[in-house]
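Preliminary data (for renewal application), tryptophan complex.
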Amino acid sequence: MAEVQAEEMASLDINSEGANAKDEDFVDPWNVQSSSATGVDYAKLIVRFGCTAIDQVLIDRIKSLTGKDPHWFLTRGIFFSHREMHKILNLYEQKKPFYLYTGRGPSSEAMHVGHLIPFLFTKWLQETFDVPLVIQMTDDEKYLWKDITMEEVRRVALENVKDIISLGFDMEKTFIFCDFDYVGQCPEFHRTIVKIQKHVTFNQVKGIFGFGNSDSIGKIAFPAVQAAPSFSSSFPLIFNGKKDVPCLIPCAIDQDPYFRMTRDVAPRIDFQKPALLHSVFFPALQGANSKMSASEPNSSIFLTDTPKQIKDKINKYAFSGGQATVEEHREKGGDCDVDISYQYLKFFLEDDERLEKIRQQDYTSGELLTGFLKKELITILQTLIGDIQARRKTVTDDMAKAFMTPRKLKFDF
Ligand code: TRP
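Predicted structure:
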């Protein structure tokens, strides 16, 4: 209840006031800017966006309802915010259905480790709750926003689909689609898009996304395309024509503007508001206040990197929270809050005890230097990426096609 009120109070247009002030972070689907070495201030973002912090009560409830240990992304605050997750848990408690929806804008061939975060977590959610999953590839969005041809965006989207499949999604429970194809295959998807478009004004999207008079009309209309998969009417084969199956969306917090709009329009078109789980941003190797970009190969670790590239990049570029000299370091200790190797270990080192030992006893105390953290991280990422690359080799065109064929999944509705 408190959550609904907070949402109503927060303006849909969140960047216009707060973020223009110099000390505020700027966050929208296309730009994330923070001037601090520790990155975006997420507590402030929760207030500004009008969402709710993921607290111990919610984490404990997930544990008691599912009987599974909550993913470390939850316990470590990597997924830190939500909208109406308790509603989803109520459904699960009553054995009522819901589904998962997430997506990717296929702008570059190479996905980096940061792109994995929402997908790895979505996979865990799907395995934990055993529900259908739809994954939207917004080839149209990237065509509209980037300098890229339709042919190129199609090729890149297919490569990305194969990367996503190689994370190990269950074909019988997962539908992956490219917007350009699916609007043609499924009139109900297009109908849902146009229904949303009819009920959102230019003024509203201007406020939410900052569109101006010189933005193409394609951009202005696009938010409805990302909103539509939040409604089960977009997937008549999966949901047997049911239009009211509730949806849960795991995504990075920068995607929230799309879903604020979606939640706002939902009651006006007699649909359910989707629930959300938001993740923090994945920092660039050079530090949380520098940008990670697919066009800057040294800003992150890519799924295509070789073991040697992983090692060299981390050793050379991972921003250190250590002190200037060894003597000073031994005396004052390292700063985990800005040390990128530690930050990455928080994402990828599963063992809680080991992580805590590294933080407290080893690094913060000054006993060990950044090089030790780097070594640990290199091994973990070489293994993770090696495993994904091995599976990626087994993903054929036919498999991708099978995932992308509109069909009923292994759930009856
Ligand atoms: N716009 C997102 C991107 O550029 C892709 C996307 C589409 C998405 N639908 C989504 C992301 C749902 C999260 C959840 O990457």
